[in-house]
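<discrete_fold_record>
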Amino acid sequence: MTSASTESAWDALEGVNPPRGYRVEITDGKIIMTPHGESRWEVVLSAAPQIRAQLAGHGRVLSDVMIDFPSPRFGYAPDLAVVAPGAERNARHRFEWHDLEAVIEVASPSGRDEDHLGKVRTYAQCGIPLYVVVDPAEAVCTVHSAPQRTGNYREAERVPFGNDLFLPLADRTLVLSTDGFPADPR
């Protein structure tokens, strides 16, 4: 667990109230605010209840909740995060990277590079078992698994919208229907 004296990227926002309707994250020490898009909301509203029902009280699903990462230069609030059963909040009342079984991010036009490249590197280095990028522009989900400390995932499977998405967690597999995911070709 992180002690109260360890720096968190989120410390930079102490006392700041970001505007509603914006996603705030910290990447490489930079505070990035992006407006929530309609496609993102539709994916979250479709996937979150499916995940929650299948977890059945063994773990939890969070959306847009600050997670402490092991570097004061990165602070992510994933679109969806699956928290392991029994995980407890740290002294800041936040979950930490090692509490996550899976992260699901919905790529936006302005954040596609970060979702497909930067976060892959960070999440793999942190050992997050599954990282899923839902990309409405391509109408495909990419499931990254087998994280390597070098910043890559050994495996990546592309699943087109309309197909079931299988997410193998530590002791169970979640199955998400992607039928409700909006294709947003630009």
